[in-house]
Amino acid sequence: MMSEEVAVLAEYGLAAHERVPLDPITASSLLWLPILVPMLAACVILVGRHRGLGWSTVGASVMITLTGVVAAVVTSDGSTLTTGPLRADALTAVMLLIIGAAAIVATWSGMIDNPAAHQESNQGRQRHVHMCRAGVPLLLASASAAVLAGNLGLLWMALLAMTVATTFLIGSAGTRTAWEAQWKYLVLVSIGLALAGLGTVMVYLAAAAVSTGAHRSLEWVFLASRTAQLDPGVVRMATPLLLIGFGAAAGLVPLHSWLPDAQSRAPGPVAALISGCYLPVAMYALLRWNRVVATDSTTGFLRVLLLVVAVGSLVFAVSMVIAQRDYLRLLAYTSMQYMALAVFGLAIGTPLAVAAVLLHLFGHGLAKAVLFCGAGQLAAPGGSTSFEDLHGVLRRNPAAAGISALALAALLGFPPFSPFASLHALLDAGISSGLAVITVVVATTVVILFISVAAKLIPMFFGVAGQPGDQPPAMLGRAQNAPLVLGLTGMALLGIFSFPLHDLLMTAGELVVER
Hints:
Structural class: mainly alpha
Number of helices: 20
Order of helices and strands: HHHEEHHHHHHHHHHHHHHHHH
């Protein structure tokens, strides 16, 4: 079995260090665990009715993270793990770490939420909440399948499954605004995935013309080694479809308007999973496809498209932040900013830029998990998150507000947190690659966004609290803040001790851009 796999890798022209370093049984067990364990957790939740069974989802998140750690150790030198339709390289390992870390914070926080929120008098409503809770491990299983898929067609199908699971989770709040956000998300992202599917079919047809086995025409290894042989006309037509399609799932213009509604109306842990799992997986799809469509004849065309989407999304996000009056929607627009910066790094097209993008996604996922899961403790009496009602939260709830303030500082690029290092590396890569003018534009938008966010957050945290008769939300003690502290600590450690990930990130960057 091992010799057959090595022969297939040799057929695709991979280097010698790409051979499978583990025996097939170990590799198979390792790669299937991040998919099967969350699916088992979903079955446990569906069969049982006790809310405590939801801790199985936390366990599944830990399993995804541990698998990412093992895969990182094995693949940081360029090695690859394969079994059946699954494949893990350095890029996969980074994505498993991103998904797992954000999921731990989100699922843990969701399990120790306000108990009163789960004491529903309506039995039908209880059943609805229970079914939605089972959607979280299904989302995690789909996310793991997407980043482990060795076939780009399977990647598209896994992202489609993620979309279905996320649709139900967005509407789990049970309010009319949540249902409206749910349908808006479903329509826009479905349009995007339909376009991405069309682009995938076009590349498949181009690859089938140069493949001896049509069933392998969408395998990433095959496509990455045959980019020069693909019909450049077909690739040029497929490229904007793939970019717009997967860009819609990443919350990028032009199909972006679902993001602020979904993240501001969904429950906090769900919004955290959208930022830490769904958006990174959509960006992962663009990173994987970049190696395929960035041929010598299309590189310039692709770079222009990426820059247009990146700058357009950045400018739009900044303009909306300036006019924003709601805390949760502001967080959502900063998600758009981060995804736009990731696309800008992909347009730069160097291993350093892609490594910075991956570190940026990591920091963003942890920061948003902390912020969205902690937003409930900052809400004004009545649950309002309008800036007009949010004043003096640092005095009303010092612990939760202090954690959120530090997470916001990290999100805005303050040291020692990882977004500071990733943003610095990204801008440095942009200048070094000859995109100095565009890099200055990007840096200017980042500064404007920083000033705009700071102008809104300073009164929110340090202003005078509301009316004397207002009562702050119930503070749930240290247990509520424990996962938030964990996420904040993770961002700090990533910023201070980034060297353990350096080789892994650079190897992943080389997989995306080098041909």
